[in-house]
Amino acid sequence: MTEDHLGYGSHLTALVQLSREVGRPERDLVILAEGNTSLKSAPDRMLVKATGASLADAQPSDFVEVDLTQYRALLDGNEIDDAPLADALLAAVTRGKKRPSVESLLHAVCLEVDGVTAVVHSHPTSVNALLCSTTPELLTRGSLFPDQVVVIGRHPMLIPYIDPGLPLAQYVRTELARHIHQHGEAPRTIFLSNHGMFALGATPLDALQITEMAVKSARIILGSVAVGGPRFLEEEQAERIDTRPDELLRRRVLLGNNH
Fold it and tell me: Considering just the CA atoms, what is the radius of gyration of the chain in Å?
């Protein structure tokens, strides 16, 4: 799952494996047909879960490959009604017989980020408990502990609730550009208020690990609220963790590359 140059079949196998991991009931990341996964299969191609399919028992036939150039044209264009949008997404399918969901547009936006090849969209109960609260910004207000910084980074992004589909994807695309300009790097996690989260990974395993660490962080925040609220690291402390040579090495090892 960490190889960079895979054929279509290997990409599909890797995405099915990732999807089933995300869908495992004990992880509490998704239920029923919730969530999506995607993988960049070629410079202008994306494999993504089809609408209505369950991640827990995902099969190769539950995924479609789409032409990202057609998706970019949609993202660059004006808002269109639901039915024409669904037709346009279906027209972009290059392999597979099912229909991509409107959330596949946001996957395409995430895969535009340099170094991102795999994306996991999930609805973890602990994360959504905060995203559906009056203080969702607790997820992005600061860093809490070293492993969080190493895996998620210091600057996750929080998006207000926007109707899923083209409006949300276009908004996030604009905010990603602003975020990268402000922080010098893209977020590894995008939190969507009253919705869920997107993990932007360098590999399928990385996207899963980012999701898992976001869940742990949310649980810690929820636990801390019962005893007075979270105490975030000082900015210089988080910066030190983010740039320490041993932590940089650990980040590379987690990605499966210790060179």
Answer: 18
Report d(CA 148, CA 95) in Å as an integer: 37
Asked, for residue 49, whether it belongs to a domain, the answer is: yes
Predicted TM-score of the model (pTM): 0.91
Number of domains in the chain: 1
> N- to C-terminal Cα distance for the chain?
18
**What tokens does 182 get?**
């402000």
Q: 40: burial class by Cβ within 10 Å (0-12, 13-18, 19+)?
A: buried
Residue 1 lies in a domain: no
Query: Residue 238: which CATH number?
Result: 3.40.225.10
Query: Is position 156 within any domain?
Result: yes
- Report pLDDT digits (tens) over 109-148: 999 999 999 999 999 999 999 999 999 999 999 999 999 9
Print the domain residue range for 239. 8-254
- State residue 38 phi and psi, 5-degree precision: -150, 160
pLDDT score for 243: 78
